[in-house]
Amino acid sequence: MSSVAGSPHCELRGPQGSGSPQRKRLQRLISVSGCGPNRSNDLLLLPAEEAAGSGEERSLSRHLVFFHGDIQNFQEEMLLQPEAAQWLPWSLEQVALILARRFPHRNIWVVRASRMYLHKFSCYQNFVESSPFGAPEHSAHGGALLQLRTLLTNAMERAKLPEPLRPAGGADSIPPGFSLILVGFSKGCVVLNQVAYELAAARADPKMSAFVDRISDMFWLDGGHPGGSETWVTDRKVLMELAACGVSIHAHVTPYEVLDPMRAWVGREYRHFIRTLEELGACPSNKLHFEEEPPSIENHFRVLLEF
After folding, report:
1. Region entry Disordered: which residue ranges (predicted)?
2. Spatial separation of the C-alpha atoms in residues 120 and 98, rounded to whole Å
3. How many other CB atoms are found less than 10 A from the CB of residue 157?
4. Tens of pLDDT along 203-254?
5. Under a CB-based contact definition with an 8 Å cutoff, are residues 4 and 30 in contact?
């Protein structure tokens, strides 16, 4: 994975040959500083569309953050890798556009994993302790929420967004109307899992509680990683905190992940995740997509269009 360390400005870049105004508005922010040394991430930003009319709700402080899966990268990086080139329709740029169509009045942020092992295995080491292949080791104090908040603060400043987050503090550091949706796809769900593990400590921290309270929705999209467990959160204490925090929980899966007989634990953990949250009164929305079709990586990616 290549990046331009310390890039002082936003780089405007969209898919080649595109004249789409939305694509021209894609901003690439390289090496945005996180919450500690060597914890920078590259981000894409697609700013929110203007509201169609005065009666339509719009806020400059409505955001969505997306964490991608394996193979997915900036499109020019994918073109250099034979295994990745065939999945160009799911590059980070294209996913930003897909999300913008679904959530047109939110600023779309795509966080690129800090490392791509062997050019294909996404590793979110800056958010959760991970193996080289990206299998997580979750803990209650992993720093994912502080990393997310710091990245957004620094990225908003660099992009010169109005109504930005200010450095971590109390409620006065959160702009009016600020709200946040978190979306994890495939390997990217490890970040959402880590956020769940950190909720109890963050909600008790005066410098983090106001930020956490503004997370409105969390979407798990066909989560998966190379570890042999903890693909979905199964710790009841963690799920109790998730159920109690008021976040709307959404889980969308495909047979590629939850019906694979070679990784039967994924489906068991998914069902446990949903059943436990229902028992705790969280009422998660959940759907198995493409149930009548054979499991395929194509449908695994297509959940990004269908959720």
Report:
1. 1-24
2. 21
3. 14
4. 999 999 999 999 999 999 999 887 777 899 999 999 999 999 999 999 999 9
5. yes
Angle at alpha carbon of residue 301, lines to 300 and 307, rounded to 5°: 85
pLDDT at 167: 85
CB distance 188 to 124 below 8 Å: yes
Rg (alpha carbons) of the chain, rounded to whole number: 18
Specify the pTM: 0.90
**Superfamily of structural domain 18-306:** Alpha/Beta hydrolase fold, catalytic domain (3.40.50.1820)
Rounded Cα distance, 17 and 270, in Å: 41
Spans of all domains in the chain: 18-306
Distance of alpha carbon 46 from alpha carbon 279, whole angstroms? 38
